TrEMBL record:
Official protein name in the record: Trehalose-6-phosphate synthase
Keyword Zinc among record annotations: no
The keyword Transcription regulation belongs to this UniProt entry's keyword annotation: no
Pfam families according to UniProt: Glyco_transf_20
Length: 462
């Protein structure tokens, strides 16, 4: 019998599980038993030295608490103002401060100690995302030899961008302390291997694994997916809700967290280009961009919000008619069922990130379509989803004319071609469904080379 599963993620869900990844991890924890560890969802709960139990369910949820300063330095600082921009090729937005790194390491070390206290020998640890890169190295230094897997949900950085990190040499060492380094795409795997190849401390073994100091790490891609059966079922009964007086004839939908990586200014400008180039003045496409607020305590996010308000105002000022507002920029979250209903109602799904680990909106849009009369996905080639979704119209979001042309083509696409492209995309979405993703990852982790016990001396000097 396999040991318990210990999941570590930034967000620890409360209430009924919802959302593909949360449900999948919940199911894996139900099946194996275990513990889900994450930051306390209530930021007013400040505290330090223990893990707090949240509710009683078949597996345990334990929350770690951050002080206000730690939240600023560890979370908004090192995680979201250093690692996030580095991984998304926005090195211009990096803010380096020594206290960011110090608190990032301090929070991870505190967490490692708390987790190590509670680990049984057969337990398997699965760490999620860039908030916890050094966790395995710290657990190893405490003598933990359990299998520890990591999954990076965001893009693996370019080797040249990594050099901008304070102490860039740490990055490879952090990751090599895991047994399995899971990444979204084959492109991410290539970048991770390039990092190890350039590092004299790393040695490639004949089975493709990487030996680094005393550790052996497997690097592989596990493209994440969605619960497509559930989204397809929701879409069949979902109601997009009322549109008011201006019910759009041709609806283009965008739904993103309001993040500078999502290429929203590019999306708006490309839509403006489409309006500018319209031959048929009676054509009245509407871009409905729903953007959920995100990370407003980081300056770059406040800036992009202002930029988007200015661009949408300009485009609407230029092209609106008395009975038509071409761009509707809705800066809030929308209930899940309604969002899926809007996706099904839309003729085009427009997904334009400049860099994105996977992009689940692209997969949700495909799953939400009616197969006999589907809408068309226009997808940035810089989303991880584009690596396999060749049925989408792939675009370079920096090329506004190309994006405008793709939207135009999508709006006019004959039914046969829409069906064919949609069937191709849906096959990819179904192949990567989230329940399969969890099973594949955990099976691979179980088959990884185990970590040998380090002597106390080695552990202490690690
Ligand atoms: P990220 O994880 O970077 O935010 P993804 O596209 O992978 O990007 O996942 C975003 C998730 O948030 C999707 O499940 C999507 O449906 C949901 N979402 C995005 N925008 C909104 C919105 N405005 N309202 C509600 N849900 C949203």
């Amino acid at each position: 019998m396999a040991g318990r599963l210990i999941v570590i993620s930034n967000r620890i869900p409360t209430g009924d599980p919802s959302g593909g990844l949360v449900v999948a991890l919940h199911d894996a924890l139900l099946a194996r038993g275990g513990v889900w560890v994450g930051a306390d969802p209530d930021p007013s709960e400040e505290g330090r030295e223990c893990l707090h139990e949240l509710g009683d369910i078949p597996y345990r949820k334990r929350a770690f608490r951050l002080s206000k300063t730690e939240r600023q330095n560890y979370y908004s600082g090192f995680a979201n103002s250093v690692l996030w921009p580095i991984c998304h090729r926005r090195t211009d937005l990096i803010e380096i401060k020594s206290e960011y790194r110090a608190d990032y390491l301090a929070v991870n070390l505190r967490l490692a100690r708390l987790i190590a206290q509670d680990l049984a020998p057969q337990d398997v640890v699965w760490v999620h995302d860039y908030h916890f890169l050094p966790l395995a190295m710290m657990l190893r230094s405490l003598g933990v030899t359990n299998r520890i897997g990591f999954f990076l949900h965001i893009p693996f950085p370019n080797i040249t961008d990594l050099a901008i990190l304070p102490r860039p040499e740490d990055f490879a060492r952090w990751l090599a302390s895991y047994n399995l380094l899971g990444l979204q795409t084959r492109g991410d795997v290539a970048r991770a291997l390039e990092m190890f190849r350039a590092d004299p401390r790393a040695e490639f073994l004949r089975d493709g694994t990487v030996k680094f100091d005393e550790h052996i790490v497997t690097v592989a891609s596990f493209p994440i997916g969605i619960d497509c059966d559930q989204i397809e079922a929701t879409a069949r009964r979902a109601d997009p809700g009322p549109f008011g007086a201006a019910n759009p004839r041709e609806l283009i939908i965008g739904a993103d967290r309001l993040d500078y990586t999502k290429g929203l200014p590019h999306k708006f400008e490309a839509f403006g280009r489409l309006l500018q180039g319209r031959v048929d003045r009676d054509a009245r496409p509407t871009l409905l961009q729903i953007a959920s607020p995100s990370r407003a305590d980081v300056a770059a996010y406040r800036q992009i919000t202002n930029d988007l308000q200015a661009i949408s105002g300009r485009i609407n000022g230029q092209y609106s008619e008395l009975d038509w507002q071409p761009l509707r920029f809705v800066h809030r979250s929308v209930a899940r069922d309604r969002l899926i209903g809007l996706m099904r109602r839309a003729e085009v799904g427009l997904v334009t990130p400049l860099a994105d680990g996977m992009n689940l909106v692209a997969k949700e849009f495909v799953a939400a379509q009616a197969p006999d009369n589907p809408g068309v996905l226009v997808l940035s080639r810089f989303a991880g989803a584009a690596e396999d979704m060749k049925g989408a119209l792939l675009i370079n979001p920096h090329d506004l004319d190309e994006t405008a042309g793709a939207i135009d083509y999508a709006l006019a696409m004959p039914l046969d071609e829409r069906r064919k492209r949609h069937a191709d995309c849906l096959a990819v979405v179904r192949d990567s469904r989230i329940s399969v993703w969890t099973d594949r990852y955990l099976a691979r982790l179980a088959s990884c080379v185990p970590t040998l016990a380090l002597s106390r001396h080695q552990a202490a000097s690690a």
